[in-house]
Amino acid sequence: GGLVVFPTETVYGLGADATNPEATSNIYKAKGRPSDNPLIIHISDPKDAEEYSFTNSTYYSLAERFMPGPLTVILPSKDTVPLTTRGGLDTVAIRCPENPIAKEFIKLCNVAIAAPSANISGSPSPTSFEYAYADMNGRVDAIIDGGDCDFGLESTIVKVNDDGSLTMLRPGKITKEDIESIGLKVIIADAVIDTLKDDEKAISPGMKYKHYAPIAPVVLLDGTKEQIVNYIRENSSVKTNIAILAYKEESEYIKRLINDIDVYEFGTRGDETTQAHLLFKLLRDTDKKNYSVIYAPLPQKSGIGLALYNRMIRAAAHNIIRL
Ligand code: TXA
Ligand code: MG
């Protein structure tokens, strides 16, 4: 009936017995999360999905290739999962993590563990013990220290449609291309990239979509290092306290040409695995300083880039400048 924060290979989770409605309602309280936003239930063996959902052959194709791992599958729910856990929906989200501590913890509990990311609602998901502790100490019964999360962005979420195709509701480490490689059809939900048109120059912030946001406004710059430097020089006064998430090979250039900018290295351009690993950490680190603006590069929309793009347009509340 208690709450336990535990590590997974994506981000830390805030866990409770998925079959206990009092316990899962306490998750919503500890997180400050609206109770109509459903939780993912975590199992230690893909076959345990039978206990909680109506599976099908698509589920087993996904399980065989990607479980345990950073993939969440939405299936019709059985009554073993209380409505509180699934936010009143008739479906349930199922994930079998591969982090050994997560696996062992779930196995020892001998029941599915409902867990959202272990952050206070609205802040970036915690990717290390330090951040999980900062958000959850005093709100939960225990926090398991599993060090840094391997990947650093939340799991890919897919919903299985009646015709066996999949709708991707949230991109992650398991990409559309990965899933298509086993012969399944994947449709990316509109909400993943929203309705931005490629030729739109600047999109004004929409607070409604601001999810993974640091305190300072984030602005995504789509351009070369020269264009980025010119833009920042033209748009910032001497006194402003600015930060930039910059690709490693461009950071020296930016530091040389802009005085008094704090540069946070964000992996090399194209190294999306490192960028995914660093994103939430850097957003939390910049929160400790009093920046007036944080600039970051706009990621690609393919492969793991799509997961970065999805998180970063939310952190930036759609504030994108195409240079
Ligand atoms: O990597 C992850 O998935 C982490 C770790 C702890 O497993 N968990 C996580 O949970 O990110 P959370 O609650 O922060 O995000 C789960 C998302 C939410 O946006 C929720 O709305 C959606 O999954 N979701 C859960 N159940 C659903 C369902 N039945 N139908 C549609 N969306 C669902
Ligand atoms: Mg979350």
Give the gist of this structure.
With 323 residues, the protein is α/β, with parallel strands linked by helices. It contains 11 helices and 15 strands.
Structure, described:
The protein has eleven helices and 15 strands. The protein is of the alpha/beta class and 323 residues long. The strands form two sheets. It has a ten-stranded mixed β-sheet with strand order 7-1-2-6-3-5-4-8-9-10, with helices on both faces. A five-stranded parallel β-sheet has the order 13-12-14-11-15. The structure holds threonylcarbamoyladenylate and magnesium ion. Magnesium ion is lined by residues 116-117, 125.
- Shape designation: globular
Largest sheet: number of strands, sense, barrel closure = 10 strands, mixed
The Rg value, from CA coordinates, equals: 20 Å
* Assembly state of the chains shown: single chain
Poorly predicted runs = 196-209
Instruction: Kindly state the percentage of residues in helix.
Output: 25-40%
What class do helices, strands and sheet pairing give?
alpha/beta
Spatial ordering of strands, largest sheet: 7-1-2-6-3-5-4-8-9-10
Helix tally equals: 11
Give the mean pLDDT: 92
E-strand count: 15
The distinct ligands, each listed once, are: threonylcarbamoyladenylate, magnesium ion
Order of helices and strands: EEHEHHEEHEHEEEHEHEHEHEHEHE
Strand composition percent: 15-25%
